[in-house]
Amino acid sequence: MTAGPGSIVILTGAGISRESGLATFRDADGIWAKVRLEDVATPGGFARDPALVHEFYNHRRRELRDPGVVPNAAHLALADLERRWPGEVLLVTQNIDDLHERAGSRRLLHMHGELLKVTCTKCENVFPWPGDLGLETACPGCTCVGRLRPRVVWFEEMPLYLDEIGQALANCSVFVSIGTSGNVYPAAGFVALARKAGARTVELNLEPSQGASLFAEAVYGPATQVVPAFCRRLLQEAGLPAA
Length: 243
Ligand code: APR
Hints:
Layout: E1 8-12, H1 37-40, H2 43-48, H3 50-65, H4 73-84, E2 89-93, H5 99-103, E3 108-110, E4 113-120, E5 126-128, E6 148-152, H6 162-170, E7 174-178, H7 190-196, E8 200-205, E9 217-220, H8 223-237
Parallel strand pairs: 1-2, 1-7, 2-3, 7-8, 8-9
Antiparallel strand pairs: 4-5, 4-6
The structure holds adenosine-5-diphosphoribose.
Residues 13-15, 18-19, 24-27, 30, 94, 112, 179-181, 183-184, 205-207, 209, 222-223 line the site of adenosine-5-diphosphoribose.
């Protein structure tokens, strides 16, 4: 009996979008060195000062709309891998930017939400939202004013799609973690679940993450270099054309 091509689960974090011009969180020039996460990324922070929270995400939406912010070679390589790989490829991202979808990834789960969407705390509908959001904005669904919030998972809130991700990890043969410091759970625990499933575990990052010792393989360097090279290697090892 020959083993099939196997399924791949890929986890990405802020490091993959760094070379597209978006800041990471915990690097020296990262977002959490400039703003307190308690103020802008917790339900309590939003309750205390919603205007400040709106300003923070409005700024990040404007950054994402900057014509210079485009998918880089790492985002493109993952989309290409999904097209070429004969088995399942699931991309799970902690990022709220839309660079993976712009690169062409299709099976993609935004476990921490999406910057370009909002949700209404009254009617609970989700709406695409490319522009600014303020205290006076009315919900396009129920017309209530001041009840919209970014469709972003904050600290103390439950990440999205955990059942689907857990299933995929339990059945994967390769798990690749890219550009994440491994500080935030449950994402930081995915490598342990993949190991339990007997998967090959690979870390691609600028430097060893918190959980580096849990990975069987690692390549350290900028995502735009190490990710395309690793995708090529994976395809070649499976006897598939890489370009
Ligand atoms: N290529 C590859 N990796 C990079 C690059 C690069 N060009 N630049 C930075 N990195 C690495 C850093 O070395 C670091 O290990 O990316 C990682 C980014 O880590 P964090 O800033 O902690 O971002 P992330 O792991 O995505 O954060 C997880 O925390 O506050 C939150 O909700 C937010 O989703 C986010 C979560």
